[in-house]
Write a structure and sequence with these properties.
The protein contains eleven helices and 14 strands. By secondary structure, the protein is of the alpha+beta class. Bound molecules: flavin-adenine dinucleotide.
Length: 310
């Protein structure tokens, strides 16, 4: 690895001053689980590394004005164990599925987003939550929809003098802090080549509510199936305002498979990824049906509570 200087700034303001002076010659280091790999491979060669993983300002997770605000330096372990996020299975399961305990203890929410891997697990979960990201520089702040922030594999709209300072989203359970979440479903499912320490071959995240026996506010995002994780808008449309019968779930799975545009790689062929995306999407819809609607409608549906699909 090429030699580099490292600094430990005392706060975000100091980070921003350093970034303003160095631009693309500097790299932010949070957990290092992606950055150091890229530096060892010679793909990233910063002369200056700015360690932000210890900054308390960036490690907060809180409820503010009915929204959840996550600091980018919150780790995957912290997400998975968070009381604040207790009702957000989509986020907790995605975080818990990442790597190994060591990776989850170091790896951060912000690093996962900015690294912009098409197979990243938190990104689809946050897409399904319709999250935004707050970017800061010495010139001010801007808030961008997460969907517009990631533009391709490893590519985002972040500028060299900017850093990610927050991730925000509305609580699907509403401003009561999730007390009404009995009628909200959030879930995440992932298929890897093994049950642990596996990068996603396909993953899916679903957020939906139940109203009068129908699904509403349906948001589905899938990862590892296109250059970036994507919202499955065709699937959302077909489910919105409907009670998901088996026939509708099969149609949703077909649409999900057809909305994929993955590459074949060492982990899976394009055809397998498309097929398995339909499988994980249909499993999530069945889980939503079981948790939200079956008590009301008495539908006969199979149980599947696992995070990993086989
Ligand atoms: C063995 C192993 C297994 C893994 N398994 C998975 C897995 O199953 N699923 C998965 O999704 N990922 C996995 N990863 C990838 C990785 O752990 C995650 O992407 C992690 O979330 C990255 O966070 P980090 O804090 O380590 O980021 P870093 O490596 O510190 O940084 C990553 C990128 O984000 C930038 N960055 C970080 N914070 C900020 C900020 N605040 N503002 C601006 N830029 C910032 C850095 O400059 C860098 O470009 C794995 C990695 C390893 C090594």
């Amino acid at each position: 690895m090429k030699n580099f200087e490292a600094i430990l700034p005392g706060d975000v303001a100091e980070c921003l001053d350093v970034l303003a002076g160095h631009g693309s010659d500097a790299a932010i280091l949070a957990g290092g689980t992606d950055l150091f790999v890229l530096m060892k491979m010679g793909i990233r060669t910063p002369n200056l590394v700015i360690y932000t993983g210890g900054l308390r300002e960036l490690k907060r997770a809180e409820r503010r004005d009915g929204r959840i605000v996550l600091g980018p330096a919150v780790t995957h372990s912290e997400v998975a164990g968070s009381q604040l996020l207790a009702g957000l299975e989509v986020l907790k399961a995605a975080a818990a599925s990442i790597g190994s305990p060591q990776v989850r203890n170091l790896g951060t929410v912000g690093g996962n987003i900015v690294n912009a891997s098409p197979a990243g697990d938190l990104y689809p979960a946050l897409l399904a939550l319709d999250a935004t990201v707050v970017l800061k520089s010495t010139n001010g702040d801007r808030e961008v929809a997460l969907e517009d922030f990631v533009t391709g594999p490893g590519e985002t709209t972040i500028e060299p003098d900017e850093m990610l300072v927050a991730i925000r989203f509305d609580e699907p359970g509403g401003k009561d802090g999730g007390k009404g979440r009995g009628k909200v479903f959030t879930g995440f499912a992932k298929v890897g080549l093994r049950n642990a320490l596996a990068i996603s071959v396909a993953n899916a995240a679903l957020v939906a509510r139940a109203e009068e026996g129908k699904l509403t506010g349906v948001r589905i995002a899938c990862g590892a199936v296109a250059p970036t994780a994507i919202r499955m808008r065709g699937v959302e449309e077909v489910l919105e305002g409907e009670s998901p019968t088996e026939a509708l779930i099969e149609e949703a799975a077909r649409i999900a498979s057809s909305e994929c545009a993955p590459l074949s790689d060492i982990r899976a062929t394009r055809e397998y990824r498309c097929h398995v995306t339909g499988v994980v999407v249909s499993r999530l819809i069945r889980r939503a049906r079981t948790e939200l609607l079956d008590a009301d409608t008495n539908m006969d549906s199979p149980k599947d509570t696992g995070t990993h699909a086989d």
